[in-house]
Amino acid sequence: MIVHIDGGDERGGSGGAEATRRRPTIKDVAATAGVSRGTVSRYLNGGKWVSPDARDSVERAIRRTGYRTNQHARSLVTGRANALAFLLAEPQDRLFVDPTYAPLLRGAAEALAGHQMTLNLLVAGSPEERLNAVTYMSGGHVDGAMLISSHENDPLVDLLLEHEIPVVSCGLPLGRTDRVASVSVDEVGGAREMVAHLRSRGCRRIAMITGPEDQPGGRYRLQGYRDELGADFDQVLVASGDWSYESGTVAMTELLGRVGDIDAVFAASDAMAAGAIAALRRAGRRIPEDVAVGGFDDSALATSLDPTLTTMHQPFDQISAQMVALLLDIIAGGAIRSVTMPATLVVRGSS
After folding, report:
1. Nearest alpha carbon to residue 165 among 48, 75, 74, 87
2. Residue 167 placed within a domain
């Protein structure tokens, strides 16, 4: 599936009577910003060697003048598509039910709007979709890909590398960390902080619902849980999910049937935490009086639950913006790098 997403026209007004008579040019932007035409040109072609102050001045001038790039001409000159792919390595239905994808997608579109670039949404959850997506990207329709929800040993990553498509992964690309750039949150540290919080509330039998262990969020959040518990870790208190609400319900039901004295549960996603809360309620357990609940993501779902969900906040807008910046740098010849951002504890009613 391929969808083109416009980041929105943030360039605003007409820029005065002169701008209503003719299309604004780079010269107009430079004059308004008080910088050289070369600086504006470098900004429009990826922003390399443009200082933060100059970049801010150019962006304000673009909005004020209403300047819009002739994308076709720009592509002919630069040999680039002036577009990036938001490449989701999951089935199409997950796009609409997982609460983390929408803020990442929105953040990427907003980040690209300032560069006057297009974001193409590609879904590659099946072998056929993977092949179609890589064929599309290698045909020059995009300059690089933001890979969302990669799995260890995913053939999609091999195809991207084989076709030399610049790529940045959201989360550490398991098994490919030396060849694929990434932006992620501190999965281990965030999980440790959540478990420490639950312990500080007097909880001693803390269960965990993990995500898939072939993904960084599943593997490293479980590692953080184990590390924080230390000698108190008990495998019987761990059940697996797939990030979804339904899997959280099933895993929590399984845990309640296996272990009777749980006083807290840490779910590795907000959606699984919501499913766990539903299962606990059906079992007659009060939240947080009988069982405290913690999640991970701080998605919009967290504040819609009753009680509201204690969770680890992921700065999705910053993650998207950093992925765009890193990918544009790689496209311009920069090095492959990995960036880690902190997850922040948000305490609410569920704990």
Report:
1. 87
2. no
Domain with 298, as residue range(s), is: 187-313
Q: Is residue 201 in some structural domain?
A: yes
Give the angle 152-153-155 at the CA atoms, nearest 5°. 125
CATH number at 199 reads 3.40.50.2300
Instruction: Please state, in angstroms and rounded to a whole number, the distance separating the CA atoms of residues 152 and 46.
Output: 31
Reported pTM? 0.78
CB 313 within 8 A of CB 285: no
Residue 182 forms part of a structural domain? no
Instruction: Output the tens digit of pLDDT for each of the chain's 351 residues.
Output: 556 565 544 334 444 444 345 778 888 899 999 999 889 888 876 666 788 888 889 888 888 888 776 554 454 444 577 899 999 999 988 888 899 999 999 999 999 988 888 999 999 999 999 999 999 999 889 999 999 998 998 899 999 999 999 999 999 999 888 899 999 999 999 999 999 999 999 999 999 999 999 999 999 999 999 999 999 999 999 999 999 999 999 999 999 999 979 999 999 999 999 999 999 999 999 999 999 999 999 999 999 999 999 999 999 999 999 999 999 999 989 999 999 999 999 999 999
Domain count, the chain: 1
Q: Is residue 332 part of a domain?
A: no
